[in-house]
C-alpha cells in the first residue's frame, strides 16, 4: 500500500482544500522578515497608505505607521485601552476585538501581519500585547478575521470572502449559511473536501443577481463537524475485508471507505458509527473505521438508536455520576426536612401525561375568604433537585453536559439517572418529597398581588393525568365512567374546578397584554412491540393542559422578576422580537391575504395576536399561523433580562422542570441562596457572572440538538406508518410551496411532496411573493393553505420522504411508484417564500403537549425555519445535479490506491 501523505486534521488547519494555495487578497508565500520594529511600522504604513508618501519624501518609520490612517485609529479608539490593571482580562480582550474589527473595516486598511497590525494600532506593554494577541486569535477562530497564507489578517467581507456553516444537499452541492448575510451556493466541485455542517471560508466567485444566489468556492475549513458519522454498512468484501458506509444523513454526500481490518466486527446491513480517519479531498472520499455497531438496520429500535448516535447524545452515565446517584437516599429524612416549611397536609396534586415518570411539578389552589383583594392562592411546588445534586459534583457536571432530557418517540434519555429522575426527585403520590414552592395570590382579574418563595416538604395526594382531569371537568356527567372518575376524586374535584377558573383568568390577562397563542397541531406516535408505528394520534389542547401551562408560566415569571429586582446573576429565558426584514415580508404576505398589519412604530406581540384572532376558524387559519410562526426568532437562554416577546413578558425564566432541564436547576440554586441569605456574597456573584454565560449558550445549543433528534424520531415513525398506505387517497392542506413542488400535510399530520413534474396539466411557475405555483396556460394556482386531494405514490423510509400525486392526475402517473426518488426534499424550501409553515418550524416534537403546555410551547413562537434553500440554485444543472452519492468502488480501493475510495424553537 502506498505511503499516505500526512494530513493535518486540526480544526483550525488553514487552507485545507485550496485550489491554488492562496486565499483572496494575498501575495506569494514567505517574504523577508523585517529587521526591526521601526521597519515593521514602515512596512505597515507602506502597505496601508502607499500612495500617501510621494517619491523622495520619507517619514520616520515608526511615525509612519501611526500617521498612516488616523481615521482608522480614531474609529478603533485613539489608543490602546489604558489602565489595563483596572480592566478584567476578558473585558480587555473583548475591547481589543472591537478595536481590531473597526480598524480592519476602514477603507484604507490592507491586510497586515500580526506584528504590523500591533505596530499600527499602538499596542504597547506586555499586558496589552497579550490581550491583543488573544483577541486576534479569537477573531480568527470565530472566522470574523481571516489570515492569508502570507500570515496577513483582514476581515472576510473586505477580501471577497465569506465565513459560515455549510448546509449540504443529497445531490452533492451545498449552501454557505452566514450569520448576517445571504446564503452562498457552493457547487459540488467547489467544496474541496468540505462536508455538511463544516465551518468554512469561501471565496466568492459569482455575485447574486436576477434571483440567483451568489456562488462560491471553499478555500479553508475552519472547523470539522463530522468527526463521527452514523450510517449503514452497504457493501463488504470478505469477512474482514473492506466496505463502504452510507451516512443516514443524506446531506453528507460522501460514502465513507472502511479499509481492511477497520470494520470492527460489523456486517453488511448493520447500522454503525464511523470515526473519520482521513478527510475527503477533491477527488477522494473520506476514510474511517467502525467504532460502534448499533445492530442490523432492520432490528427493532436500531433506527432510533441511529438518530441518538447521529445527534451525539450521551446515553450512558459516567461511573462517578452513577456511584454518586447510588448514594442518594430513597426516602426523605428528618435531616432533609430541617429549615423547610411543612406543607404535607396541603391538598397538592400532580397533573401529567399518563406515561410520564419524572414528575417535577405539583399544584395546589385555595379559594380565599371574601373581603380581601386576593381571591385565589396558587401553589406551584417544584422538585428540589438541587438538594440531591450539589454544584460541581459528578452528577452536576454530567447534567450540565447533557443540559436537557431528550424525549424520543420510543425512549427517554434523561438528564439525571433514573434513580433520581424517576425516584427521590419525582413528586410521586403519598410519599414525602422535597420541593421549592412558589405561593402566589391572585385577584379576580388574574393579577398577581402577592407571592412567596421558600423550600418545602410536600406529599402529593393524587397522581392525575391530563386525560382524567379533562374528563372530570368537561366530560358528560351522565357517562358512567366520568361519574366514577369524579366520585373517585371527589376530594380534589372542587379544587380542579377552581383551577380551571383561575387558568381562564390568567389566559385572558395574558391575551390582554398581547401574548401570542399559536395553536399548531402535534402528533403522538403509538408503537407496537417491535417499535413500529401502529397509530398516529393528534394531540389536542384541553382545559387540563391549559391549567398546567398557565400555572407554570405564572411561576416562571414570578421567579424571574424576583431575581431580577435583587440584581443577582441569573439565567433568563428570552425571546427577542422578530427581525424587521422578516416582519416586512410577513406584512406584505398578510396584505395579499387581506389581513394587513396596522401601521407600527414599534413591534409589539399584540400585532401578531390580532392577526391570529382575525383568521381563527377561517380556511386560511392554518396558513397564517404557520407563516407568523416562521417569523418568530428562536427562544434561548441568556444572562440578561431581554424579555419574552411571544409571551409579552418583561421577565421570564425556566424554573419548573429541574429534573429535565439544567437551566432550571441553576435557577433553583440561585433562588435558594437568595431565600437563605437575602442576597449573594460578592465572591459568589462574581463566580456566577463568570460561568452563567457559557452555561446559557451551551444549554441553548443542546436544546436545539435535542429538539432536532426528537423531531427526527417522530418524522421517521410517521414515514414508516405510511409504508403500507401507498395507493390510498387523502384530503390534505398545502403546507409548503417551492419551485419543485407542493408539500401537503395530511389529516394524520404526515407531510409529503407533490413534485412539480407530476403536475402534468400545465407548466407551473413559482410565485415567491404569493407563496404559490401558477399554471402558465390555465392560471390554476396552488398556494399555502389550499386543500387538495392526493394519492400516496411512494414511501422511502431511508430518505424519510413521501411522494404524493394529485388524485385527479394519478391515472396519468400509474408508473410513478417505479421511479427513483427525486431530489428536493425537506430542508430546501425556496428562499423566504418557500415557507414550510407548520410542516417544519411549527413542530415541537418530542414530548408534545404533555410537556410543551408547561412552558408555553404554544404560547410563543418556534424558531425561524433554518432551512430556506432554493432548488433552483445556480449551477444545480451542472456537476451538482448529476446527483446521487459519489461512490467510486473500483477494484483498486482494496489496494488503497490514491484515486480509489468513495467519491433542520421554541419559544418556550
From TrEMBL:
Biased composition (Basic and acidic residues): 848-857
Single GO cellular component term: cytosol
Subcellular location: Cytoplasm
Segments for region (Disordered): 1-89, 816-908
SMART domains cross-referenced by the UniProt entry: CSP, RNB, S1
Purpose of the protein: 3'-5' exoribonuclease that releases 5'-nucleoside monophosphates and is involved in maturation of structured RNAs.
Keywords: Cytoplasm, Exonuclease, Hydrolase, Nuclease, RNA-binding
Name recorded for this polypeptide: Ribonuclease R
GO-annotated biological processes: mRNA catabolic process
Catalytic reaction annotation: Exonucleolytic cleavage in the 3'- to 5'-direction to yield nucleoside 5'-phosphates
Entry keyword annotation includes rRNA-binding: no
Compositional bias of kind Low complexity: 36-55, 64-86, 858-874
Amino acid at each position: 500500500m502506498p505511503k499516505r501523505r500526512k494530513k493535518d486534521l486540526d480544526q483550525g488547519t488553514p487552507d485545507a482544500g485550496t485550489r491554488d494555495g492562496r486565499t483572496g487578497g494575498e501575495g506569494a508565500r514567505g517574504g523577508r522578515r523585517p529587521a526591526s520594529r521601526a521597519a515593521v511600522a514602515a512596512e505597515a504604513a507602506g502597505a496601508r497608505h502607499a500612495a500617501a508618501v510621494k517619491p523622495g519624501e520619507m517619514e520616520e518609520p515608526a511615525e509612519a505607521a501611526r500617521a498612516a490612517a488616523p481615521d482608522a485609529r480614531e474609529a478603533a479608539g485613539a489608543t490602546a485601552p489604558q489602565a489595563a490593571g483596572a480592566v478584567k482580562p476578558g473585558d480587555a480582550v473583548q475591547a481589543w476585538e472591537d478595536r481590531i474589527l473597526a480598524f480592519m473595516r476602514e477603507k484604507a486598511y490592507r491586510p497586515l501581519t500580526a506584528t504590523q497590525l500591533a505596530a499600527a494600532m499602538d499596542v504597547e506593554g506586555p499586558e496589552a500585547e497579550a490581550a491583543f494577541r488573544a483577541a486576534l486569535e479569537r477573531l480568527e477562530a470565530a472566522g470574523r478575521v481571516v489570515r492569508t497564507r502570507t500570515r496577513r489578517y483582514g476581515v472576510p467581507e473586505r477580501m471577497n470572502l465569506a465565513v459560515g456553516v455549510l448546509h449540504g444537499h443529497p445531490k452533492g452541492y451545498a449552501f454557505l449559511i452566514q450569520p448576517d448575510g445571504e446564503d452562498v451556493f457552493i457547487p459540488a466541485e467547489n467544496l474541496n473536501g468540505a462536508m455538511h455542517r463544516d465551518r468554512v471560508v469561501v471565496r466568492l466567485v459569482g455575485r447574486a443577481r436576477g434571483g440567483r444566489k451568489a456562488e462560491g468556492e471553499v478555500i479553508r475549513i475552519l472547523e470539522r463537524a463530522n468527526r463521527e458519522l452514523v450510517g449503514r454498512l452497504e457493501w463488504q468484501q470478505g469477512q474482514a475485508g473492506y466496505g463502504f458506509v452510507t451516512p443516514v444523513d443524506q446531506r453528507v454526500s460522501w460514502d465513507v471507505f472502511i479499509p481492511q481490518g477497520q470494520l470492527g466486527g460489523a456486517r453488511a446491513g448493520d447500522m454503525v458509527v464511523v470515526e473519520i480517519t482521513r478527510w475527503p479531498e477533491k477527488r477522494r472520499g473520506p476514510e474511517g473505521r467502525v467504532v460502534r455497531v448499533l445492530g442490523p438496520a432492520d432490528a427493532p429500535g436500531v433506527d432510533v438508536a441511529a438518530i441518538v448516535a447521529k445527534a451525539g447524545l450521551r446515553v450512558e452515565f459516567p461511573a462517578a455520576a452513577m456511584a454518586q446517584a447510588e448514594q442518594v437516599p430513597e426516602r426523605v429524612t428528618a435531616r432533609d426536612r430541617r429549615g423547610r416549611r411543612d406543607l404535607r397536609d396541603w391538598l397538592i396534586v400532580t397533573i401529567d401525561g399518563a406515561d410520564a415518570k419524572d414528575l417535577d411539578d405539583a399544584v395546589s389552589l385555595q379559594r380565599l375568604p371574601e373581603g380581601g383583594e386576593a381571591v385565589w392562592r396558587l401553589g406551584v411546588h417544584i422538585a428540589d433537585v438541587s438538594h440531591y445534586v450539589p454544584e460541581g459534583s459528578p452528577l452536576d457536571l454530567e447534567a450540565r453536559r447533557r443540559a436537557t432530557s431528550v424525549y424520543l418517540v420510543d425512549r427517554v434519555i434523561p438528564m439525571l439517572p433514573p434513580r433520581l429522575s424517576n425516584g427521590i426527585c419525582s413528586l410521586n403520590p403519598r410519599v414525602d418529597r422535597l420541593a421549592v414552592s412558589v405561593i402566589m395570590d391572585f385577584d379576580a382579574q388574574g393579577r398577581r398581588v402577592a407571592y412567596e418563595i421558600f423550600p418545602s416538604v410536600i406529599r402529593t395526594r393524587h397522581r392525575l393525568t391530563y386525560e382524567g382531569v379533562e374528563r372530570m371537568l368537561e366530560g358528560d356527567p351522565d357517562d358512567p365512567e366520568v361519574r366514577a372518575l369524579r366520585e373517585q376524586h371527589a376530594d380534589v374535584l372542587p379544587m380542579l374546578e377552581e383551577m380551571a377558573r383561575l387558568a381562564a383568568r390568567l389566559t385572558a390577562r395574558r391575551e390582554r397584554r398581547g401574548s401570542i397563542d399559536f395553536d399548531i397541531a402535534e402528533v403522538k406516535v403509538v408503537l407496537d412491540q417491535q417499535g413500529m408505528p401502529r397509530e398516529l394520534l393528534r394531540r389536542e389542547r384541553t382545559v387540563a393542559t391549559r391549567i398546567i401551562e398557565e400555572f407554570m408560566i405564572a411561576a416562571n415569571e414570578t421567579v424571574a422578576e424576583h431575581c431580577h429586582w435583587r440584581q443577582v446573576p441569573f439565567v433568563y429565558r428570552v425571546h427577542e422580537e422578530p427581525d424587521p426584514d422578516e416582519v416586512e415580508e410577513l406584512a406584505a404576505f398578510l396584505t395579499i391575504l387581506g389581513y394587513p398589519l396596522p401601521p407600527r412604530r414599534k413591534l409589539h406581540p399584540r400585532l401578531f395576536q390580532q392577526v391570529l384572532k382575525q383568521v381563527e376558524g377561517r380556511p386560511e387559519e392554518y396558513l397564517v399561523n404557520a407563516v407568523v410562526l416562521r417569523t418568530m426568532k428562536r427562544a434561548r437562554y441568556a444572562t440578561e433580562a431581554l424579555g419574552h416577546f411571544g409571551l409579552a413578558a418583561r421577565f421570564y425564566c425556566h424554573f419548573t422542570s429541574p429534573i429535565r432541564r439544567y437551566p432550571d436547576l441553576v435557577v433553583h440554586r440561585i433562588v435558594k441562596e437568595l431565600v437563605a441569605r437575602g442576597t449573594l456574597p460578592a465572591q459568589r456573584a462574581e463566580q456566577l457572572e463568570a460561568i452563567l454565560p457559557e452555561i446559557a449558550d451551551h444549554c441553548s445549543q443542546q436544546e436545539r440538538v435535542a429538539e432536532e433528534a426528537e423531531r427526527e424520531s417522530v418524522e421517521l415513525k410517521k414515514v414508516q406508518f405510511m409504508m403500507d398506505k401507498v395507493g390510498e387517497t387523502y384530503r390534505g392542506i398545502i403546507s409548503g410551496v417551492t419551485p419543485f413542488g407542493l408539500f401537503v400535510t395530511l389529516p394524520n399530520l404526515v407531510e409529503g411532496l407533490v413534485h412539480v413534474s407530476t403536475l402534468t396539466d400545465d407548466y407551473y411557475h413559482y410565485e415567491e411573493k404569493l407563496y404559490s405555483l401558477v399554471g402558465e396556460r390555465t392560471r390554476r394556482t396552488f398556494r399555502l393553505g389550499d386543500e387538495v386531494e392526493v394519492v400516496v405514490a411512494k414511501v422511502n423510509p431511508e430518505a424519510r420522504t413521501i411522494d404524493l400525486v394529485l388524485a385527479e392526475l394519478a391515472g396519468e402517473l400509474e408508473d410513478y411508484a417505479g421511479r427513483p426518488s427525486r431530489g428536493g426534499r425537506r430542508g430546501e424550501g425556496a428562499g423566504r417564500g418557500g415557507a414550510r409553515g407548520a410542516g417544519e418550524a411549527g413542530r415541537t416534537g418530542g414530548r408534545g403537549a404533555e410537556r410543551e403546555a408547561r412552558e408555553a410551547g404554544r404560547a410563543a413562537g418556534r424558531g425561524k425555519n433554518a432551512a430556506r434553500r432554493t432548488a433552483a440554485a445556480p449551477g444545480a444543472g451542472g456537476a451538482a445535479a448529476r446527483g446521487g452519492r459519489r461512490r467510486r468502488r473500483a477494484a483498486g480501493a482494496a489496494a488503497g490506491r490514491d484515486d480509489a475510495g468513495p467519491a433542520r424553537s421554541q419559544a418556550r
